[in-house]
Amino acid sequence: RPRRPFPFLASVAAMAVLVMMSAGCSRSPAPASAPPTTVATSASTQPSTSVPAGGTTRFTLGPCQPVPPPAAPAAWIPSDLPLPPGTFTVQDFTPQGSPSGTYQAILAVPNGLADFVRYVAAQWHDAGWAQGRGEAEQGEAENTYSRLAAAGGDSGRQGGAWRAREAYCDKGTVELLLILKK
Question: Is 129 helix (H, G, I), strand (E, B) or coil?
Fold first, then answer.
């Protein structure tokens, strides 16, 4: 029987889906009386044929969150897993000691979503981390990752999943759910 590459990633991916689903369900909806947020953008960052003479256009967003303040860093994130400068931990969900060897945290990344995805694609492989095929939809992207085989080492022993999404009102910062199985 052929050996499946990265066999634990299937369980990590399934766990990531469950975490993502529960994270989406655990948030309380915005109050019905909350007005939508109106944001002004410059014509250079928001292409539009209806830009008024003042050079800005307005569009309306649904409920969003402000970027939260930094929390204590998630010490379990591998030092060789590059993250954009300025990235900080918002919340570490890992139980003390993590008996299962599974770690998860929410990070705030000071990049737009497309910039973050390009950063990960360019930086992680060079740092020794392979990614899966990934998936993206409007306002969110997700993928799996694992440590590449080192000379004489065994690949696939460490890896996980990530989901980046535009959850914050500041579109220059994305919310990153990072899951790692050691």
Answer: strand
Residues in contact with 46: Cβ distance below 8 Å, sequence separation at least 6, in sequence order? 57, 59
Please tell me the pTM assigned to this model: 0.65
CA torsion through residues 12, 14, 18, 21, sign = positive
Q: Which has the higher per-residue pLDDT, 155 or 163?
A: 163
Under 8 Å between Cβ of 164 and 114: no
Distance between CA 182 and CA 175 in Å, rounded?
Answer: 23
Distance separating alpha carbons of residues 139 and 93, to the nearest angstrom = 23
Runs of H (alpha helix) within the chain: 7-26, 113-123
pLDDT at 30 over 90: no
pLDDT for res 18: 39
Rounded distance between C-alpha atoms, residue 145 and residue 117, angstroms: 13
Structure tokens at 165: 């999404």
pLDDT on residue 157:
77
What average pLDDT does this structure show over 4-33?
42
C-alpha to C-alpha distance for 74 and 105, rounded to whole angstroms: 7
